[in-house]
Amino acid sequence: MDLQQIVDDTWNALADERGSGTPAGYIPALAQVDPTKFGIAIATRDGSVFCAGDADEQFSIQSVSKVFALAMALDREGAALWEAVGREPSGNPFNSIVQLEREKGKPRNPFINSGAIVTTDRFIGDRGPDEAVADLLSRLHNMARDTRITIDEDVARSESETGARNRSLAYFMADFGRLLNPVEDVLSVYFRQCGIAMSCRQLAEASLFLAFDGTDPVTGLTMCSTERARRINALMLLCGHYDNSGEFAFDVGFPGKSGVGGGILASVPGRATLAVWSPGLNRAGTSLLGARALAQIADRTGWSVFSGTFEKS
Amino acid sequence: MDLQQIVDDTWNALADERGSGTPAGYIPALAQVDPTKFGIAIATRDGSVFCAGDADEQFSIQSVSKVFALAMALDREGAALWEAVGREPSGNPFNSIVQLEREKGKPRNPFINSGAIVTTDRFIGDRGPDEAVADLLSRLHNMARDTRITIDEDVARSESETGARNRSLAYFMADFGRLLNPVEDVLSVYFRQCGIAMSCRQLAEASLFLAFDGTDPVTGLTMCSTERARRINALMLLCGHYDNSGEFAFDVGFPGKSGVGGGILASVPGRATLAVWSPGLNRAGTSLLGARALAQIADRTGWSVFSGTFEKS
Amino acid sequence: MDLQQIVDDTWNALADERGSGTPAGYIPALAQVDPTKFGIAIATRDGSVFCAGDADEQFSIQSVSKVFALAMALDREGAALWEAVGREPSGNPFNSIVQLEREKGKPRNPFINSGAIVTTDRFIGDRGPDEAVADLLSRLHNMARDTRITIDEDVARSESETGARNRSLAYFMADFGRLLNPVEDVLSVYFRQCGIAMSCRQLAEASLFLAFDGTDPVTGLTMCSTERARRINALMLLCGHYDNSGEFAFDVGFPGKSGVGGGILASVPGRATLAVWSPGLNRAGTSLLGARALAQIADRTGWSVFSGTFEKS
Amino acid sequence: MDLQQIVDDTWNALADERGSGTPAGYIPALAQVDPTKFGIAIATRDGSVFCAGDADEQFSIQSVSKVFALAMALDREGAALWEAVGREPSGNPFNSIVQLEREKGKPRNPFINSGAIVTTDRFIGDRGPDEAVADLLSRLHNMARDTRITIDEDVARSESETGARNRSLAYFMADFGRLLNPVEDVLSVYFRQCGIAMSCRQLAEASLFLAFDGTDPVTGLTMCSTERARRINALMLLCGHYDNSGEFAFDVGFPGKSGVGGGILASVPGRATLAVWSPGLNRAGTSLLGARALAQIADRTGWSVFSGTFEKS
């Protein structure tokens, strides 16, 4: 299978539609990104990365960071994390508070905002916020073998300034005693984590552990246990795109996690990780071109966790 | 891999816990079933079936029938079915009406009751109810190569007599113009389909198409296209256990669909189909022992769609 | 106070706007009513009735009938009725099912559809449906001293044929064991009661008991106890216009109950009852001109239960 | 009518049950109040005040303050206030956020917490928070002719420290652009207003404007227009006790507003204002003994806005 050819064909097939969808505009740093950007990267077991377009330009990964925060919180907390956050699809938009009220402040899963805030709280643990952020960055540097991964402080500051809804969610959970750390401490980490800047290449490389049972096959670094890696994939498939997750599982057929910066990270267990980036979003907040690129790659490669014939490499 | 050994080990490991959970008691025909029944069957590509316990005793498949109804409705309607029913997890119990009110009578997915009623309506199409039921039975006979599969008319009648909630859901959707056939015609098929009686062996054999891209590898019969088979698996993984689907995906790692009769059907794409039966249910209405048996089989076989190492046969 | 002058002034002030609002169109019998009809009647303690416009033409009273059904159910059941139906505003539209799901099938109050269906069920009691309907009509004849009050069977039949939502509500409650009689029996009375045809004059006369502590000051007939009459007024004020009740209490200042036929019944305790009719409805399903007429009458008379100066007659 | 006798009889009839109900315990200042406190005061047109029990001891008026905040916000903003907050019962508990999400951050009415926060925001207007608080206190001093009314700073501080839910509501609304002032400024006034300490006597005297069309008959001071006073009464009747308002209107029959400090303020238009205080609350957060005292006073006086015979003084 010629993955470089597949990546190129996919990019070319969609290139004319760059700029479709609606970029997130709630903070200046996102609104100012060139909407025609479009990058694709596929990383495989042997360390190869197949790229097209703007795959080496960093963008704000936003909610894609929830995958890393979850892996690291699980690493710190173990199964106790699941007392703080559920593992079920929410059936609601990413920032809904309705479910929280009905279920006494316990978020449905780690990929909706409320669940990610709790996950971040547990990832911080008994450290200070800055130490937690440093730990997160350092892990990403190691996994991606690239120390240029950084936090866009402008984005983080803007997130905080416009973060009334997330603040509301956090205080709501605090009211139910769901947070261990002070609300503003948790949010300070949460907003910085949303502001992490990575390229498609860095994203695909940093997340190989997802496709290979918890251990990066290139560096040999273990991010989490086999069982936990599989479970993170399960959660991504079920909840990675909020109330658009079914559509994504349906069209693409493998786990993914989207961010409003236009990035999507996907995992094909046993084969590869994929990262795509195009700022224009669909109605559900997922990159429009990105989701279509992944569907085309799924078609061209035959990769699908639901396939009866697809062979692992 | 010695599947007979795995099936036997699993059965033996759980045999002492037969009778745990709470059998469905809303109709006499279900309440009278011996709660200690426990059967397991695994069917594979070459026609082998590995069984343990009460795998040859028929039980009421209840909501497991939604998988067959969906496959057959898709076969009749094609993608137009998705205008009548969604493809997203509902985040609610199986018989919730809240989501229906918010979304103008369009059910979230084909595996909650409202969605299954719409699916049945489309499967009936412009035929009479009896013709639709005959068609469904005949397909099951062919797929399972077993004409003993039948409808338990006692169960169907009891379902109808106690079916106030399902009647409410159906009239609610009718109020939004969502049904093509008269409510009572649709329900007459729906209740009979819930009353289908099959054994674990029959269930595993009849559903091999799910694990092998739409075509039964033993009979060569095609139930649906490759793409549709994959998508039914996706829906089973995301929505097959109502608001317990995340937990199941998490613990078991492959698609499944449960019924309140205590049966669970599961599919391991490329490998096998599995059927388990034990009447006692957990809080979410899934067979307690059945779910544990599947989790043990997943552990013993390494089967998981999220695994980075699992090789297809 | 010259009530005839006030009634005439109000009618004249609004006459040019006859035809505004949107008449209910869900059944032919309502859609065919002349939308420019406009009638007003005020009945007082001494048997006088002050009328303007089409006050002597009968129309379909629809949900206004819920007031009579409630008074008569209370008469049969006493306070036990409140175990079957609540006494709180619902904060939702008249036919919402969301609240029913959350509160186990117990309706919030007797004036939303679900609550009226339960009330009708209790009013039927252990009699047959036809006997209950005959009892209701006979009481209206006596209270209004007018045997021309009748049931429009065309309307009742249409209501039943298009009544999928009400059927859904009824089956939903039946599923929770909330109904004593078979669903179709209850609905047969409910739909006929909605189809009662009365004129403004008849409506105002039949409901004097509301304004005078349960006993009609003209006929001397007692409909219910003093305490119950006051409580029906309280419920009308709090819940008489679904999720528009606050607006009505705010603008008009005394208890009322609207119907989608365009009628509104109102009660000024100690003074009078009022009935207005104009088929065009506002967004919340209350007669547009009717509500404005009542607000003008409130202004012109100074009648308000919240007034610090208003003196009873 | 001997009001002193009625007040004494009511106090004596309930004295043995002092201490029933559950005092609010979420802040120390409330938890430490002697639970057996029980005071009653009735103020009438001519300046008389009829008291029993602990009617001269100050307590934390909590949500009763929402009545004063509403009157003063209406005075500043006029009808424009109703673009910021609705006038309908919410059908939900006082601190529910569900309705806010469904209705884009606009609270249902000024007496649920979210609505009171918006009302406070408008009452502040373009002044600083401290100036607004000073204005509120000064008005209370004038209306009650008593400068001992003050803010319990301990209570206000505790409210703020434990106010995660209210903070969540405020940020939620801020996210929808519903607040003119910074969240923390609004809350600083809101928490201080909840911490106002008044006695039953002061409360009854300060609120006579409610029963007398906006103007205090003793001091001659006008708090708001006739129309607005009536409307505040309407809102109190419909929404003054959250999802227990129907019950209260039913049992008591005139407008009231409760606070979790155990106080209830009530208004009998044309007759009197009443204030009761007993710290133990019922399930809905209203003073248990207080509500019963008001019901007894209603019985003994015959006061009810729904009565057909009750004559104004």
TrEMBL record, chains A, B, C, D:
Per UniProt, where does substrate bind? Answer: S63, N113, E159, N166, Y190, Y242, V260
The family assignment reads: Belongs to the glutaminase family.
* Name of this chain's protein: Glutaminase
Q: What EC number(s) does this enzyme carry?
A: 3.5.1.2
Q: Which NCBIfam families match?
A: Gln_ase, PRK00971.1-2
Subunit description: Homotetramer.
| Pfam families the record matches | Glutaminase
Listed under GO biological process in this entry are: glutamate biosynthetic process; L-glutamine catabolic process
- What are the GO MF terms of this UniProt record? glutaminase activity
Write the record's keywords in alphabetical order, separated by commas: Acetylation, Hydrolase
The record's Gene3D superfamilies line, in alphabetical order, gives: DD-peptidase/beta-lactamase superfamily
- Respond yes or no to whether keyword Acetylation is given for this record: yes
HAMAP family attached here? Glutaminase
The superkingdom of the source organism is Bacteria
Query: Which reaction is recorded as catalysed by this protein?
Result: L-glutamine + H2O = L-glutamate + NH4(+)
Top EC class per UniProt?
hydrolase
